[in-house]
Amino acid sequence: MLSSEEVLRKLTIGDPTYCRALVSGDMDELAHRPDGRSVALLRLGALITSGGAQPTWQQCVWQARSAGLDPDDIVAALVALAPTLGPDRVVAAAPHLAQALGFDVDAALFAWQDEET
Predict the structure, then answer these.
(1) For residue 100, which of 50, 64, 46 has the smallest C-alpha distance?
(2) What is the pTM for the complete model shown?
(3) Closest by alpha carbon to 59, among 43, 73, 70, 45?
(4) CA distance 44 to 32
C-alpha cells in the first residue's frame, strides 16, 4: 500500500502505469481509500464542474444511488458547490442533473412560465 506522499510523487511525475490504474478505478494501492459514498459525491462534483454528455450524468447518478445517496443528497451536493463554482455553473448543471434523476425538467419550465404570465 502506498503512502499519500508516494501517491503524490507518482501523480507528479505522471507515472503512466499508476495513472492508468487510477483511471480504471483501481484504488487498491491507496493507503486511505474513500468509501463508495464519498467517491460518488466526488465524481458528481467533478462532473458538475466539468460538464459532460447526458449518459455521463445518468451513469454518475446511478453510481451515486447505488452508493446509497438519495435525490436529496445528490441535489445537496450541487447546492453545496454553488459558493465555489458560482451560480452560472450550478444553473447550467441543474437541468442535466434533474434529467438524470428522472425529473421532468420541461414540465417544470412550462409550469414556471405559466406562473410568470
Answers:
(1) 64
(2) 0.75
(3) 43
(4) 20
Residue 105 CA to its chain's centroid (Å): 19
The sign one gets for the Cα dihedral 68, 73, 38, 93 is: positive
Is residue 53 packed enough to be buried (19+ CB in 10 Å), middle (13-18) or exposed (0-12)?
Answer: exposed
Calpha distance 101→59 (Å, rounded): 10
Residue 29, SS3? Answer: coil
For residues 71 and 101, the answer to whether their CB atoms sit within 8 Å is yes
Mean pLDDT in order along the chain per 10 residues (117 residues): 86 91 72 80 92 91 95 95 94 94 81 69
Q: What is the pLDDT of residue 78?
A: 94
Q: What is the pLDDT, as a whole number, of residue 56?
A: 94
Helix axes 87-100, 36-50, angle to 10 degrees: 120
DSSP state of 31: S
